[in-house]
Amino acid sequence: AGCEKEPSSYMWIYILLGNMLRGIGETPITPLGISYLDDFAKEESVPVYVACLHTIAMMGPMFGFLLGSLCAKLYVDVGFVDPGSITITPQDSRWVGAWWLGFLIGGAASFLSAIPFCFLPKSLKKPEEDKKDKTSHGLLGNTSAVRNKLSPEKTKPRKSSAMLKGKRFLWSLKKVLGNRMYFTFLCCSLLQFSGFIGFVTYKPKYMEQQYGQSTSKSNFLIGMTTLPPVGLGIFLGGLIMKKYKMSILGATKFSFTMSFLSYAIGLLHFFVGCDNYAVAGMTVSYE
């Protein structure tokens, strides 16, 4: 009974709120960034730009694993205790690395990288739009005039703009999810990312338990061997799409072929591993 203690620290609440704020800040980058590139870049250059965006996004976790590897080599109370008084090493199961240091470094880096976004213009012009400004404005003006004549009741002030915005959002969401191609792509992306996130999350711990590696070395190996090839593949995929100017059907066939080869090679992981440790009472008898 003396060994049973209730958790008395509520620091996990701060970590939860910090990750929530981080997610709120990071979420708009991918959808709005891709839309920004798609709207204001040349059509043939969009695949390369999107590939660069995703490649840079993959570089972040790679540097995160390397940073985690460095922090794991430092004792959790680094800066508060004398290093000479620490009698255990990172290979010891009782060792706890400076996990909190990565949050401070990552937060500072995120804050600094967010500053350039404040200087982006709200809107840009495509090169071909410069010649069509007058025609476009005239066409839009005529269209709006016709609409006002056909539906004068729509020009009346709205009493419940929030309700209309909600209905408009639901209508747009229904229209998007009703697109079979987009819905299929969404399901495929969910399956891919679910497998990839589980792979990256649990592979370091697997390497620690099965191969006797330290936390620092496991994070280093994951960061150097898993994520760079993924980023390189994304970038090469964008270059291939630009070079051959693939249509939607061609890109779908290309994606299917590469995904099938990836899954086929991924099955080889089932044949890699070591025997489990002999644990009395679990894998072997007490005798």
UniProtKB/TrEMBL annotation:
It is a multi-pass membrane protein. Pfam families: OATP (PF03137). One of its GO terms (cellular component) is basolateral plasma membrane. The chain crosses the membrane at residues 12-34, 46-76, 96-120, 181-200, 220-241, 253-272. Keywords: Disulfide bond, Ion transport, Membrane, Transmembrane, Transmembrane helix, Transport. InterPro entries: MFS_trans_sf (IPR036259), OATP (IPR004156). GO terms for biological process: monoatomic ion transport; sodium-independent organic anion transport. It is found in: Cell membrane; Membrane. Its main location: membrane. It comes from the Eukaryota. The keyword Transmembrane applies. GO terms for molecular function: bile acid transmembrane transporter activity; sodium-independent organic anion transmembrane transporter activity. Belongs to the organo anion transporter (TC 2.A.60) family. This is Solute carrier organic anion transporter family member.
